Amino acid sequence: MKIPLFTIGSALLLLPSGTTARNGSMKKTLTGHIDPSEVFSFVYVPFEVELGTTSIYVLQSYSAKNEGNALDLGIFDQRGTETPYGSRGWSGGFRNNFTITPSWATPGYNPGPISPGVWNVVLGPYTSVQEGIDWQLDIEMGFDAIDSYFAPDYATVNLDPLCNGVCTEDGEWLRGDLHLHTVYSDGKYTPDQQIQMALDRNLDFIFFSDHNTDTSNNIMGHYQATLAPDLLIGRAIEVTTRAGHWQAIGLDRGQLIDWRYQDNASFAAAAHEVHRSGGLVSINHPFAACAACNWGFNDWDHNDAIEVWNAEWDSTDQQAVDWWQGLLVSGKRTTAVGGSDAHSPPSLNGQPTTVVRSRGKSQAAIVEGIKAGRTYLVQGPGMDVEFDINVPSLQTTLAIGDKVDGAPASAVAILTATGFSHQKACLLNDKGYFFNTTIKDTNTVHRRIPPNSKFVRVEIRNSTSDGMLALTNPIWLL
Ligand SMILES: *[C@@H]1O[C@H](CO)[C@@H](O)[C@H](O)[C@H]1NC(C)=O
Ligand SMILES: *[C@@H]1O[C@H](CO)[C@@H](O)[C@H](O)[C@H]1NC(C)=O
Ligand SMILES: *[C@@H]1O[C@H](CO)[C@@H](O)[C@H](O)[C@H]1NC(C)=O
Ligand SMILES: *[C@@H]1O[C@H](CO)[C@@H](O)[C@H](O)[C@H]1NC(C)=O
Ligand SMILES: *[C@@H]1O[C@H](CO)[C@@H](O)[C@H](O)[C@H]1NC(C)=O
């Protein structure tokens, strides 16, 4: 049987070692022990917040830190731990202390009213030595008078208000990045650094996606207004569970998504919450080689997309592409997306870039374009792909993401690739690669499609290393 989360019984083992009011502050020290069998669970440490409290400071310390033990940190307020909406912040293993006040909080924590009641520090054992983890929390609550309150400042997620986000039926290709971090979780980039880089790298949209917190989503209005009024800054969270990471993209204002589960049903329920508010669910780096980073849910049904290309191309991305090809062959129309996962220098955002045919510059239109598979990936700026299939018998031209019903005779793939001189272009269908050629400058490749192809997609690979340089989603023919 699984060890349950801290029960009332074990909570009584906490040792409040001295509760003294000093010069308008109250300090508590709580200690406890976590058994190695509790790794990947969440341990809740309740403490009482008195009426009149206006600041909470928590300092975490524990045994064998950086020597085999790793203990994540977060906090839930008086609304309780049942739903994600009690969460007042999460910093994983990145910070050992935080402060929350009505006007200000440590990045990753939500400023706002401090209501009295039982709050819970949440400890997340990630790795443990044999002896377990001895932890201590030093909590200090202040009672100073308040002179201001935090007000969220959301970025505008619809930059085409006149046409309500849907401006062209055909759509325009917009370049972006769906996976970015900041100091609001475990990154060193500030929002303005990421935004400036996105502008320099010619992106039209970015989604900040800090781990298990909406705090960066709540402050982007200021940066958008002052730095980048034409950059679409969407709302996302990297839902960082103990059985894999997934991207909740296109969230509502203030929306939080639970991350405290390892079972399929809870993942499906959380994915449903994202869909209910019009968002997109994407499985991140499914084969990443770090503990609990790879996809452990064995559920490929409740996501719309898979991040098949995370940061610099490597063999785990190839595994993701192979898996995705298998899904396509089985008839599942999951969209392949990319994500830079840029946290800190020297990582670049927009590497890879996800390019979406979007019916407007809005979060909703980007989400719609990705769900429809109108998406391709390139390594970075200056690279562009145009891939169509001409079907003479139907007198039509299909673009990436389009579908026709019925196998058209004599369909021809037309590929124009810019920025890939001397690299290798590959055409694939459900049986695999059927045509490879070397790209000369920006020539257009025409190629008859094998009969009975279920779908056709394109890869452009480095002719020296075979690394991926571009990848399209399929055009569906059956
Ligand atoms: C209480 O705070 C005041 C103002 O910050 C300071 O001057 C004083 O020394 C503090 N007293 C104690 C006991 O810490
Ligand atoms: C609190 O966190 C900050 C930022 O991570 C760090 O610089 C500081 O050393 C920490 N304080 C203590 C007492 O560890
Ligand atoms: C999730 O579902 C898959 C497929 O039904 C199953 O193989 C797997 O054991 C499930 N995993 C968990 C943790 O429930
Ligand atoms: C085409 O290129 C792919 C990717 O590099 C390779 O796996 C495949 O073997 C090539 N096919 C042929 C016929 O050369
Ligand atoms: C292709 O691979 C070679 C060898 O790894 C590398 O030097 C070169 O920069 C790569 N080209 C591109 C466009 O990434």
UniProtKB/TrEMBL annotation:
<dbReference type="GO" id="GO:0035312">
    <property type="term" value="F:5'-3' DNA exonuclease activity"/>
</dbReference>
<feature type="region of interest" description="Disordered">
    <location>
        <begin position="335"/>
        <end position="354"/>
    </location>
</feature>
<feature type="signal peptide">
    <location>
        <begin position="1"/>
        <end position="21"/>
    </location>
</feature>
<dbReference type="InterPro" id="IPR016195">
    <property type="entry name" value="Pol/histidinol_Pase-like"/>
</dbReference>
<dbReference type="InterPro" id="IPR052018">
    <property type="entry name" value="PHP_domain"/>
</dbReference>
<keyword id="KW-0732">Signal</keyword>
<protein>
    <recommendedName>
        <fullName>Polymerase/histidinol phosphatase N-terminal domain-containing protein</fullName>
    </recommendedName>
</protein>
<dbReference type="GO" id="GO:0004534">
    <property type="term" value="F:5'-3' RNA exonuclease activity"/>
</dbReference>
<dbReference type="Pfam" id="PF13263">
    <property type="entry name" value="PHP_C"/>
</dbReference>
